[in-house]
From TrEMBL:
Stretches assigned to the DUF1468 domain: 12-143
Signal peptide: none
Pfam families: TctB
Protein name listed in UniProt: DUF1468 domain-containing protein
Keyword Mitochondrion: no
Keywords per UniProt: Membrane, Transmembrane, Transmembrane helix
Keyword Iron-sulfur applies: no
Transmembrane portions of the chain: 43-61, 82-112, 118-137
Natural source organism: Ancylobacter amanitiformis
Amino acid sequence: MTRRRFDWPDLAFGAFLIAVAAGTLVATRGLNGGTAADMGPGYMPRAIALILLAFGLFFAGRGLLRGPVGIEPVQLRPILGVGVAVGVFALLIENAGLALASFAAILIAAAASRESRFFEVIVFGLAVTAGAVLLFIKALALPVSIWPW
């Protein structure tokens, strides 16, 4: 008799998504959903919850059907790099402005990967910073300074 083994990471992730979707559906049960043409306050939360439920069922089903897959060891460099980049952005956005905060966050996040190339990171950082300024300052007219001066 063979013992059935599961892909525990996928199964646990699927169960988590199902639980979040179920919690959202229960929490929004009293809200009016409305229709696609006349959306009520419960329309989008329920739509997102149903999408989460579908993904949860997919991952749970895959976890039950697929054999065990090893879990890779945790790598601290990417986790810390992205966390520090978000923190630096949050600290710089008010005093240094959107452009410098965005560019600094991109440089720090790129340092989290060993595959980053200096020239590509600089070009990408400048492009994303310009896009952020155009989107948030020009298109959305958010009251955020671009530069520290």
